[in-house]
Amino acid sequence: MANLTNFNVRVDSDIKKQCEALYGKLGVNLTTAINVFLRQSLRVGGFPFDVRLEQPNKETVAAMLEAQRIAYDPYVKGYVDLDEMFAELKR
Question: pTM for the complete prediction?
Answer without folding.
Answer: 0.56
